[in-house]
């Protein structure tokens, strides 16, 4: 009973460590995702400002032609409408960038603030041309949530042994030693350590709850049913992990293929804008064609920028699906040294929290007895 109880508790400890690792995976993935989102918004802001300049030139050209009587007031009115619509996007994008920076600050454990000094300038992170995954089955098994589900199964399997142990007889040996006295005649407190005051009791114990066999057997069945539930949960976790990897890879491949076509589309749209402005300046076409080409350029640039961000976002999804990110705790304690120091000042933790480091970089001596450092993570 106690051996299987220790086995279950050990598996539960491993399960909690895996849950901690899973939180690191989520945190790392979220930081990368928000960072890519921020860079994508910055690129969209650059695109919007570039379109404002293009549309500003078109408006000025339409206004000049209207003032010289070559066209009606409809042309500058339409040009100004498109220009103001594009200019209205800039404050919205700046607000979204600020919000993404605030979210990134919180994820990094800092109060919301301007991260320009930390991040500096930069483009949307570029993903590598090829992604080598190795053996997917081995990589998936390293996912913390799969390890957690696996260890939960192991812990519950041991609980069946604990429940079955209740069906068998148990033996115990109890005893006590001590001195007794009183302050009544013929004894007084000075007789406490006399040999006559010494007493002891000893006796074996035997227990076999035969009359409770029905309840105990049902408890074994309950534990077995819970084990089956956790096995199904483990299988679902593995299947869901495989789906996430495939979804990430499909999105990565699709976004990369789209950007190749969108890059050509943006170049063609830019040429259309240039040609339409030349034709309008020479009176060979109306301003509607200029408007259409400018709108098409703006739409294609925005879609191309989003596709670039989608490539990196999907690659982050692949790494997250494969459980990447928990490795950042390698070589570190679960609890930072500063927090451990505060805990040592409040409470005597003994060997569970190592003491001060020795001078000259010497390693800390091993803990005495069976106690192990509380915050040292295992090496999976």
Q: The biggest beta sheet, please?
A: 2 strands, antiparallel
Low-confidence parts: 356-375
Strand fraction: 5-15%
Q: What coarse outline follows from CA principal-axis ratios?
A: elongated
Helix segment tally: 8
Q: Which percent range fits the helix content?
A: 55-70%
Q: What features would you describe in this structure?
A:
With 380 residues, the protein is mostly helical. 65% of the residues lie in helices and 5% in strands. It contains 8 helices and 2 strands. Strands 1-2 form a two-stranded antiparallel sheet. Helix 1 runs antiparallel to helix 2 (74-107), helix 1 (2-67) packs antiparallel against helix 5 and helix 1 runs antiparallel to helix 7 (287-321). The two termini are 28 Å apart. Residues 356-375 have low confidence and may be disordered.
């Amino acid at each position: 009973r106690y051996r299987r109880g220790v086995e279950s508790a050990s598996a539960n400890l491993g399960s909690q460590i895996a849950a901690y690792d899973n939180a690191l995976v989520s945190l790392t993935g979220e930081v990368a995702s928000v960072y890519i989102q921020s860079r994508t918004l910055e690129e969209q802001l650059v695109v919007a400002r570039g379109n404002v300049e293009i549309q500003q030139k078109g408006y000025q050209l339409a206004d000049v032609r209207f003032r010289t009587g070559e066209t009606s007031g409809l042309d500058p009115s339409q040009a100004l409408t498109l220009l103001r619509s594009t200019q209205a996007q800039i404050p919205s994008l700046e607000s979204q960038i600020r919000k993404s920076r605030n979210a990134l600050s919180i994820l990094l454990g800092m109060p919301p603030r301007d991260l320009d000094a930390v991040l500096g300038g930069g483009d949307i992170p570029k993903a590598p041309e090829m992604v080598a995954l190795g053996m997917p089955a081995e990589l998936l098994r390293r996912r913390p949530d799969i390890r957690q589900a696996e260890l939960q199964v192991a812990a519950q399997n041991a609980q069946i042994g604990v429940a079955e142990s209740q069906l068998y007889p148990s033996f115990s040996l109890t005893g006590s030693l001590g001195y007794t006295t009183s302050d009544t005649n013929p004894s007084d407190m000075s007789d406490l350590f006399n040999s006559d005051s010494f007493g002891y009791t000893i006796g074996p114990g035997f227990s076999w709850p035969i009359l409770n066999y029905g309840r105990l057997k049902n408890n074994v069945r309950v534990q077995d049913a819970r084990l089956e539930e956790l096995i199904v949960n483990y299988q679902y976790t593995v299947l869901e992990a495989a789906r996430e990897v495939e979804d990430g890879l499909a999105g990565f491949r699709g976004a990369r293929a789209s950007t190749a076509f969108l890059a050509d589309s943006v170049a063609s749209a830019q040429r259309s804008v240039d040609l339409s402005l030349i034709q309008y300046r020479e009176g060979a076409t109306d301003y509607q064609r200029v408007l259409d080409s400018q709108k098409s350029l703006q739409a294609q640039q925005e879609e191309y920028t989003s596709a670039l961000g989608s490539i990196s976002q999907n690659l982050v999804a692949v790494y997250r699906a494969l459980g990447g990110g928990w490795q950042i705790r390698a070589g570190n304690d679960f609890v930072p040294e500063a927090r451990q120091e505060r805990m040592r000042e409040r409470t005597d933790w003994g060997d569970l929290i190592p003491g001060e480091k020795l001078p000259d970089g010497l390693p800390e001596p091993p803990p005495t007895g069976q106690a192990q450092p509380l915050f040292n993570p295992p090496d999976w």
